[in-house]
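Quick entry between incubations.
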Amino acid sequence: MRHLFRDLIIFAMALPVGLFATSGILDMRHSPTRGLPYHDDFANGNATGWVAHDGNWTVQSGVMVNESNERGAKLITGSPYWADYAVDADLALSNTGEAGIIARVSHAESGVDSYDGIYVGLRVRDESLVVGEADYGWGELAVQPLPQPIIANVWYHIHLEMRGCDLKVLTWRDGSEDTIRLSRLLSPCLRRGKIGLRSYDSGGQWKNIRVTALQAGNGTGLG
Amino acid sequence: MHRGAEAAAQAAGYQIYWNGPTREDDLDRQILIADNAVHRGAKALILGPTNIWGLTTMVNAMTARRLPVVFVQTEPSEPTGPYLTSVTPNQEEFGRLAAERVEATTQGAVQVAIVGVGRGTPETLARADSFIRAIAACPRVHIVAETPGGVQIMESEQSARELVNRYPKLRAIFAVSADATQGVMLALQERGSHPGIKLIGSDRDLFLAANLHDGKLDSLVTADGYQIGYLAVQTAVAGIRGQPFPPPMHVGAKLLTRETLILNDNH
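Done. Structure below.
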């Protein structure tokens, strides 16, 4: 009886400690900045942490390559709890479709527009920078014509910021000083999610993927 | 089509799960997507088939379970019945309108070709057949080739490239699907401008209307995608509610030209 009483006392004392520790771990796991800043230069030659939904993805000399022209192949990584962040990537198209990056991604699965998220990419068909929202359908939010045609296998940089419902995008061709800028206030908007690489009707190459948490004061200052 | 489907679903109090394989010819993935949707509780299926012959077993299994199935874009290979029907464009009109356009915009002896015909996509066969029948009434127009490429842009692009090289007097191409239209357009653009070759495309995607506006193709035969999506969901919902399935429905086609597009924009 005395042992039972002692065990109950220990259990009663341990319970709040355990609950506190568990909630602390959950808080940490659910943190919008957990794992940030994130950087993958694919230097180790593998794609650990990335999940493919269609496409034919391989790492080649520090570059992530999708050697398929499927419509809407995706490669996803990151935390579903990432909220306000900037994504930077260098990308090159393999042929005449489009390629880009996706942000605040959730519910991704195999299929054309089968995810919830924001897409920013370069599209050869109308030589433009495209911003859209996928929700198992496609809604085009903005199209900004580029001053020069997109050239296959040439590197372009894309910078995407999502702060609240404020979206800002910068892009430029490697070696060029012409920066294309685009900003939109989305209403409503997706609030959190992973990041990813996506191509449509084109293969593509991506390198130097960076994700940075946005706090008050940092970012492009655009718009 | 998606917007029409969403509108009908919302009006009926249903939700749509909308998905498709990333490769136009990926039949296995289309079956997997459909199976998964039903496994997760979908009450009806609306299918834009990648290849109708490959879907027979799955469709039979679904209808045997009394799950309503509605085909869009092309009619099913199986007979329609209490759990299977279709809402499709009037394919006959596609060929007829394209033939009338060739006749109206050309003079003298003319060589034309058909691009994008595929056995797995019967709508492309039906459009090509009706084009051949309609053009027979105009003996000065001669069809020199009918080439494949129904669901592969690159295949149509390659076909068009070969046609242009092989038939220097080619004056018009009828592309029988959206992908074929895009493929032919790429081939014609790649070789520089081809003012002598009129491209009459089929169906409407995100870009083709803009391409028509920009003069990259002569004209486009389309059916009202919104109406097809709306009717398909309305029919599927009727099936879910145990109401009798109607026989296959056809939505009329119309010819869009740059002039009619601009006219519509201005109104």
